[in-house]
Amino acid sequence: MPTTDNETPDVSELTPPSRTLMGPGPSNTNPRVLRAMSTPLVGHLDPSFVEIMNDVQELLRYTFRTDNEWTIPVSGTGSAAMEAAIGNLVEPGDTMLVPTNGYFGDRMASMARRAGGTVVEVDAPWGEPLETPTVEDALETHDPDVFGFVHAETSTGVLQPNVPELTAVAHEHDALVIADTVTSLGGVELRVDEWDIDVAYAGPQKCLSCPPGASPLTLSDEAMEKVLSREQAPRSWYLDLSLLEGYWGDERAYHHTAPITNVYALREALRLVAEEGIESRWDRHERIAGALKAGVEGMGLEMNAPEEYWLPSLNAVQVPDGIDDSEVCETLLERYDLEIAGGLGDLSGEIFRIGCMGHSARAENVIFVVTALDDVLESLGADVDPGKGVTATRRSLATE
Ligand SMILES: Cc1ncc(COP(=O)(O)O)c(C=O)c1O
């Protein structure tokens, strides 16, 4: 029924439930970040906001482990930072090499094509990382201008372990390297400068535990040189980094109205990272996710990724025989207000994806998720060892 001007719209009175978020993101937000979001607005060029922008840039450099001047939060979600990276680096006529080993390589390919680039692929099965010799062969065969890879593949729970090798071979072939660090920034070891990554982008709602809306991006001088010497402007006006430079660079001139509240939130989330210390934070993720891993293995389930490329921030666990993954996820949500997720693409129905990110990566949460998963799987008839999971989790936490 169309509403007329005088009718009250018929909307629900639902208050969103309070969930424990242990899925692929968003993660739970630290209360300090939520409080920062209730800070009154100032103008996006207010002197106090300019100071906050400086803080965010400095804290992002710390978190990315980089001195890159060109380090900013892009207005929008992780995909906006991704499109800013690809849409500015790939010019019409350029070739971009992308991986086939997960969901987000495909997204890189779509964005590169829309930027006017030609896409070529480097293959690895879903659930496995890229091998250096395979990447080297692809670089040799296709001579791409840009090589993109996913450091932490959220769709498969795989960590790309050989990043310095990949950047070295790419640079030998004169390709600039874009790293998707959406699920690694602030949770898993990542060293942009030391590993010679040209461009990295991320999302705030994963290991930074910040609501989505302002997404980290960093570019080396070499990458920025390419962006500033393009023959044609990028196809997106909004994400054109040469224009954004006016706002985030020295000039501080209006480009678009920054999402002020999201920038407040990101600053607070990054201050929490700096207070904890980036390396301690990586250690915490490994320790807490290690206890989760011990728990799921203790109850008789198997991790999907071998130890060498296990991704602590996103744990891919094989679904036991005869069990419907979506029924498990729905029951956990209903019975426990607990979010985990099933698999995507080639791994749909095969894995559970259990996040262990940022503020969600805490001992009480992993004890909870292991206990709840054990209960739900047992009640659905899975072959699990009740109680053994939580014992293994507790022991793992106690030994650290
Ligand atoms: C690896 C990876 N890249 C890119 C994205 C896109 O980020 P967003 O959904 O915030 O746009 C995601 C989101 O889950 C991701 O996991």
What does this structure look like?
With 400 residues, this protein is of the alpha/beta class. It has 2 domains: 31-275, Aspartate Aminotransferase, domain 2; 278-399, Aspartate Aminotransferase, domain 1. It is 41% helix and 14% strand. The chain contains 13 helices and 14 strands. Strand 13 and strand 14 (351-355) form a beta hairpin. Helix 10 packs antiparallel against helix 13 (388-399). It is globular. It starts with 19 loop residues before the first strand and ends with a helix. The protein binds pyridoxal-5'-phosphate. The site of pyridoxal-5'-phosphate has 14 residues, from helix 3.
The run of helices and strands is EHHEHEHEHEEEHEEEHHHHEHEEEHH
Shape descriptor reads globular
Q: Sketch the major β-sheet.
A: 7 strands, mixed
CATH class of the largest domain: Alpha Beta
- End-to-end distance: 61 Å
Based on CA atoms alone, the radius of gyration comes out at 22 Å
Strand arrangement in the largest pleated sheet: 2-10-9-8-5-3-4
Number of domains: 2
What's the short version?
It is built from 13 helices and 14 strands.
Topology:
Blueprint: E1 20-21, H1 31-36, H2 47-64, E2 70-76, H3 78-89, E3 95-99, H4 103-114, E4 118-122, H5 132-142, E5 146-150, E6 152-153, E7 158-159, H6 163-172, E8 176-180, E9 199-201, E10 213-219, H7 221-228, H8 241-248, H9 260-276, H10 278-298, E11 314-318, H11 325-336, E12 338-339, E13 341-342, E14 351-355, H12 363-379, H13 388-399
Parallel strand pairs: 1-12, 3-4, 3-5, 5-8, 8-9
Antiparallel strand pairs: 2-10, 6-7, 9-10, 11-14, 13-14
The structure holds pyridoxal-5'-phosphate.
